[in-house]
Specification:
The chain is mostly beta strands. It is built from 18 helices and 91 strands. Residues 1-27 and 42-52 have low confidence and may be disordered.
Length: 1238
């Protein structure tokens, strides 16, 4: 171990840089030591020559292209000298462990003798543990005996970790064992070890899997968390049931078996005997002796632990703890509150992996916050997925009730700061990885972005759906016995290159990491000291693999932190193009301990502006002006912890507020799948919609919030200051069985009072029920409404929107048909209703041919898409295109094809308008399902759906299908398909045969050809840029906006810079249980640039963080301060309300808001359908429309907001629905204008 001056004094050269001054005698000793070791003093500043600083460096070797075929080279046993093999011994007394995370040993990397070369330690199951000394040039020597480690015998070992446990400056070793005492090996500094576990109080006997070291209580010494898994009862379950009934008649496990089994409720009133996980343990270091403090610290849950990570997820300075558990045991996120812990996983993550395996933590998106990646066992192709799903129906209750939800796929939880997370595994291309064990997150190609490596494989395929293990099978035999003859499950290891913006590409083969076998633990370190990260992989039944990283393109830097306790220290490296942050946490994930050295890839940059270290005890150091391609050793100061300078917090654009009265949307349980068992998602939970209008004329907009079936819609009067009072409305109460969808406030009868229209949707009522009739409520005065006769139809409706399409001075209606009851995906009937002096006539057939069968309409917008002054109609559809109906002087003609939209099929949701590129015409923003789903589409290979008769029952069924390698396969598995169509299991007697079969082989080409077919060729949300004549080009929105389905959409200039921004309501909680919630989003604000492009704004900057199933979204001035606020209506929950922060950093202060209201004719008093343009002196133009019904199931008050400079004059031009125009001059200082129709 390198020595440092013992007598020092602190000298401060500049803010953030603390240096050591040494005596001349000490300086000579230091200079001599530098010559011997090759270290050189780094002088980022020009201090006095007597100053010895806290940083030294060693130049890394130069590299050049050596024409290697792959990025990594597998170095053979002959060169490495490492012959360690974790042997597979199927007759070993502990063979049952081969069905678990104990199948193969772990690997740890660290310099045990202080010579500067990282050494390697392997643990084995039936194989003896081994320590290998690094001789350089990727060559190693077995020093297990001479180091003293061979004296540990041959326990079945699991994970091991190097750490300076006794704080003497060298790396000690802790080894976990299965049901034999764990071992603590103390290092004397030369690589000689003595076992001291009992003396230190850590000779624990349990199913120990892995130790994770961290000073969690910030007292200066290393504590550790001991992860456990489960104990295996030799010979399987006993013949006699190991449980009894308690005094209440409920089954309970007998005391002698409680360490092996537990009872779990799998259905209401039905209990099942399952293996039981064990209690994890927390050890606190009390002056060199460890005390087990799990319960008093709050670590109390049992689980089948497979990995863990110390991780300050909320960035409060206290290391928190994430624990990943296998099976149905929930993962845990223990928030550290000054040394005690609270599990906050339920309120922090939208969902987690089901069978959580390995995990790792790193900043994958470069935003400065460490993200969490957890593996599951989802197959990487159709066959693997369909042969491992089993009978998902038996897990339905678990899938629908687990909190947080657990899904059989990897979870990528993106840290947005302030304890907020989005989930992005599908979006990133990292959701499926087969039977993955150890994910390693590091910059392997040195481009400054963190890549991903995953080990794969298993002893047998224990998830083989064709070989289930029943309760009877478990008596007298273990899982290993049951599957023993099935052979090894060899999988290919995976590598993914980070291309930025959450886009990872599979590079396993081109990087040389695509080994097929049974790979378990993995660790990284710079084994050959060339500055890049090499990999070691622990394999079962073959030698461990040493992968030499032969990267040569990028610059890099290595950082070794030397201090009293460096574990958990955070380092930020700043270069001209990027800022990277990493935390020193060598022990993360599955049975892996990495070299305790930080590596930063710098790409083309060869100069480092700043290196900042926040040590685990709070001390801060900062160094600047450093060269790349060095190995720097940084020594911690002996000063007191630094108190960071208080920085002025940036004010987010919005702040969340609460109402004084709880406004709530509440669903009643309903089983949609009894009507159609293979629905892709529920159809009964698509609301709520909302409408805003100042019906009591007090200046504050009032709210109608739609109700779910069985719960009435409600009107809320806004009194300001967050006070809403519910208006008692008997007419709405009487219609509580209706499922409210779209809603509009309008004066349909021109009597000067605001009436209410509500469209009825859902599927909860029987076909033909009056509950599906759309409803019109007339305002009879005194805030009283009564339902009046209305041509409401009997289909399940969706959105509704109003406009004077025929220019007769009153408001007409479009009501979109959402569903044909019991026949998804056949659409309901859409209708065009003409207002004839307060009476509505259905004129669809005569004036809008083809509109009645527009599709499953999800959104609708009256808009002048063609720029001819007549209001056209755009509708969005599920499983179809965005359709344009061009208004030809009062007659609507389908112009979808000529608009370039017919091929743009998707799962479209909401739509709204604005001139995003400032070219004077109207563009559109449209929501879609997004890219963070299991569905993958292209123009050549769309996502398809078929509705028809596929068996001899005569019943029509719906079948989803996707493409893989130019073959069309069903999305749903054998078990759920059989439940709907029993012929499937008769035709395909095994899961494997079903998984190999294509759609035509299962359902026949004839039946598919006769079926009603739908498709989606794009799933991205985006904008439609208008060429001015109603022809559109589609531009996808930024990638982060595709993280969840988009429903509600607002297009307004919310940051006051003169450009239209976009805000989205996200998530979809209604997909069928096997698919799971699409809940990765938090809502999204996109800052417009004025040219049709947008910049994503993070939640901590926008202030928008909407969890839950957000649907409709409105921009309204709730508090009457002249700025637009936001309300997100959420399904089965209370809405989220955000007020604009007046001093937000995003707001452009030299601009002012200009609010415009129109006074139209008696039948259209607010000028619905008008196009308003703001003309500025420099020739620039802002254009917007007034809508009644836009976004998703939303109506906002009829007013327009523009932004212009405080001292700027402007001209307002209005194109009225009648075809007339008007011009109004706006002077400086004016913030509100009311314009009357000509």
């Amino acid at each position: 171990m390198k020595s440092f001056p013992s007598k020092v004094r602190l000298t401060c050269l500049c803010a953030g840089s603390i240096l050591l001054a040494a005596t001349s005698c000490e300086q000579s000793e230091i200079d001599k030591e530098r010559q011997e070791t090759g270290w050189e003093q780094i002088l980022p500043f020009q201090p006095d020559e007597k100053i010895y600083q806290y940083i030294e460096g060693k130049k890394l070797p130069s590299r050049k292209d050596s024409n290697f075929q792959t990025r990594f080279t597998l170095v053979g046993v002959k060169q490495t000298g490492v012959s360690f093999v974790n042997e597979f011994q199927p007759d070993h007394p502990r063979k049952a462990l081969y069905s678990s995370g104990f199948s193969c040993g772990g690997v740890a990397i660290g310099d045990v003798n202080g010579d500067g070369w990282p050494d390697v330690f392997f643990t084995g199951g039936p194989t003896a543990n081994k320590l290998y000394h690094n001789l350089g040039n990727m060559h190693f020597r077995d020093i297990s005996s001479e180091s003293g480690l061979s004296a540990g015998g041959n326990p079945w070992s699991a994970g091991a970790a190097f750490a300076d446990i006794d704080a003497d400056g060298d790396l000690d070793l802790y080894v976990c064992n299965y049901e034999t005492p764990n071992q603590l090996w103390l290092n004397d500094g030369s690589g000689k070890f003595v076992e001291k576990a009992k003396a230190f109080g850590v000779d624990t006997v349990t199913a120990s899997l892995m130790p994770y070291f961290q000073d969690y209580d910030n007292d200066g010494d290393l504590d550790f968390f001991l992860l456990t898994n489960r104990l295996f009862l030799p010979g399987g379950r006993p013949q006699e049931p190991p449980f009894r009934k308690d005094s209440n008649g409920k089954p309970e496990v007998l005391p002698s078996f409680q360490k092996y089994f537990q009872m779990r409720e799998v259905a209401e009133g039905i209990m099942k005997l399952e293996p039981s996980g064990l209690e994890d343990l927390l050890f606190r270091n009390d002056d060199g002796h460890f005390k087990e403090v799990s319960v008093e610290a709050g670590i109390v849950e049992r689980g089948h632990g497979l990995s863990a990570a110390w991780w300050d997820y909320d960035d409060d300075g206290d290391p928190d703890l994430y624990v990943a558990n296998d099976f149905k045991d929930s993962d845990h996120l223990y928030r550290n509150d000054s040394g005690t812990f609270v599990d906050v996983v339920k309120e922090t993550f939208p969902h987690i992996a089901w069978f959580s395996m390995g995990s790792d933590v790193a900043d994958l998106d470069g935003n400065g916050g460490d993200d969490l990646f957890t593996l599951d066992m989802s197959g990487t192709n159709h066959f693997r997925q369909k042969t491992t799903m089993g009978t998902m129906n038996s897990h339905k209750i678990f899938l629908e009730t687990a909190n947080p939800r657990q899904y059989m796929r990897n979870a990528l939880l993106m840290n947005e700061g302030e304890g907020l997370f989005r989930e992005a595994a599908y979006l990133a291309g990292l959701a499926d990885a087969d039977w993955g064990w150890a994910p390693k997150l590091e910059d392997f190609d040195e481009d400054g972005r963190v890549d991903v490596f995953i080990t794969n494989g298993m002893t047998q395929n224990f998830t083989n759906s064709d070989l289930p293990m029943s309760a009877q099978d478990r008596i007298g035999q273990t899982e290993f016995d049951h599957y023993r003859t099935t052979g090894f499950k060899k999988d290919v290891n995976l590598a993914f290159q980070n291309a930025g913006k959450l886009n990872f590409s599979k590079v396993s083969e081109v990087w040389g990491l695509d080994h097929e076998g049974m790979s378990f633990a993995a660790a990284h370190g710079d084994l050959d000291r060339d500055g890049d990260l090499d990999l070691i992989v622990a394999n079962l039944n073959e030698p461990a693999h040493f992968y030499r990283n032969d990267s040569f393109e990028g610059n890099r830097v290595l950082l070794s932190l030397k201090g009293l306790n460096a574990w958990g220290s955070k380092v930020t490296v700043v270069t001209a193009k990027r800022k990277q942050t990493k935390t020193l946490r060598p022990t993360t994930g599955y049975m892996s301990s990495d070299e305790p050295v930080l590596h930063f890839g710098l790409g083309e940059e060869d100069y480092i502006g700043v290196i900042k270290i926040i040590w685990s005890d709070g001390t801060e150091q900062e160094f600047g002006d450093l060269h790349a391609n060095y190995y720097y050793e940084i020594i911690q100061t002996t000063s007191e912890p630094t108190i960071p300078e208080t920085q002025k917090q940036k004010q987010p654009l919005f702040r969340k507020v609460s109402t004084t009265t709880q406004i709530l949307h509440e669903e009643k349980p309903f089983d949609d799948y009894k009507i159609q068992p293979l629905l892709p998602h529920k159809l009964s939970r698509l609301g709520p919609g909302m409408a805003w209008h100042d019906i009591d004329t007090n200046g504050f907009p009032d709210l109608f919030l739609g109700g779910a079936a069985g719960k009435p819609g409600s009107i809320w009067l806004n009194y300001g200051e967050g006070e809403f009072r519910r208006l008692v409305t008997p007419a709405l109460e009487a219609d509580k069985n209706c499922e409210d969808m779209g809603a509009l406030f309008l004066d349909y009868d021109s009597d000067g009072k605001t009436d209410l229209l509500v469209s009825s949707g859902g599927i909860e009522s029987p076909e033909g029920s009056h509950d599906y009739a759309d409803r019109l409520y007339r305002n009879i005065g005194g805030f009283r409404f009564e339902r009046v006769p209305f041509s409401g139809g009997s289909t399940s409706s969706g959105p509704t929107t109003a406009c004077d399409f025929d220019r007769d001075g009153d408001l007409d209606l479009f009501i979109g048909g959402r569903l044909s009851l019991g026949e998804y995906p056949r659409p309901g009937t859409s209708r065009l209703l003409r207002n004839d002096k307060g009476n509505f006539a259905d004129v669809t057939k005569d004036l809008a041919p083809g509109l009645s069968s527009a599709g499953m309409v999800t959104g609708a917008l009256w808009t002048d898409a063609t720029g001819n002054g007549w209001t056209d109609l755009l509708v969005t559809t599920e499983w179809g295109p965005i359709k344009l109906y061009k208004n030809n002087k009062g007659k609507l003609l389908d112009a979808t094809k000529e608009a370039g939209l017919s091929d743009l099929t998707g799962w479209w949701t909401g739509i709204t308008s604005a001139d995003f590129d400032k070219d004077g015409d109207i563009d559109y923003a449209i929501g879609n399902l997004g890219l963070n789903t299991k569905y993958k589409v292209s123009k050549e290979h769309p996502f398809e759906g078929y509705y028809g008769i596929f068996d001899d029952t005569g019943k029509k069924r719906f079948i989803e299908a996707t493409w893989e390698h130019n073959k069309l396969y069903p999305v749903r598995g054998r078990s759920c398909s059989t439940a709907a169509m029993p012929f499937v299991s008769r035709k395909f007697g095994s899961y494997a045969s079903f998984a190999r079969a294509t759609m035509p082989q299962i359902y026949t080409s004839k039946c598919l050809a006769e079926a009603y077919r739908v498709e989606a060729k794009t799933l991205e949300s985006g904008i439609l840029l208008n060429d001015g004549a109603g022809h559109f080009s589609f531009r996808p929105l930024p990638r982060i906006a595709q993280i969840a389905p988009v429903f509600g959409i607002v297009a307004n200039d919310l940051d006051n810079d003169g450009h239209y921004d976009l805000t989205f309501a996200q998530n979809f909680f209604s997909p069928q249980p096997e698919t799971g919630r699409m809940d990765g989003g938090l809502g999204q604000f996109l800052q417009g640039l004025g040219d049709g492009n947008f910049i994503p704004v993070a939640p901590k900057e926008s202030g928008i963080a909407v969890k839950g199933d957000a649907k409709s979204l409105a921009a309204i001035d709730i508090d009457k301060d002249g700025r637009q606020d936001l309300m997100f209506a959420r399904n089965d929950s209370e809405p989220s309300i955000y007020l604009t922060s007046p001093n937000a950093s995003l707001i452009t202060n030299d601009y002012r808001n200009l609010q415009i209201r129109l006074k139209g004719p008696k039948g259209n008093p607010t000028g619905i359908g008008s196009t308003i343009s703001l003309l500025l002196p420099d020739g620039k133009k802002q254009t917007a429309e007034i809508h009644a019904g836009s976004g998703y199931l939303t109506q906002t008050p009829a007013r327009i907001y523009f932004s212009l400079k405080n001292e700027e004059v402007a001209t307002i031009q209005v194109q009225w629905p009648s075809g007339k125009t008007s011009t109004t001059r706006v002077s400086t200082g004016i913030s509100e204008v009311i314009i009357s129709s000509p």
